[in-house]
Amino acid sequence: MKLRKPKGFQDIKDNYKTNGCGDSLTNIKFGTFFKRSCDIHDIEYLAKDELKSDRKDADKRFLHNMLKESSVLPAHQRFLRSSQAYVYYAAVRIFGGLFY
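-> structure tokens emitted (100 positions)
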């Protein structure tokens, strides 16, 4: 499954270390289902100057990617993961400015 990435992402992605969807406690509690989406989002925040990335666009891509990852699941699981995606999105919109 192909996820959205900002222009130039492939050129710089290996220069940055990511942590999935948070620290080890968050990953244990909520799982790592969205790890690919979270890693892309982390790099967008870390490499904002290199990528000329806008925070709001990065967050929108994050939501889009999580919903895309959820789309392959059966309906009942898709609903739960999509709901989780919106919670993650709300969290980055509210608190992401501290890390951007």
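The chain has six helices and no strands.
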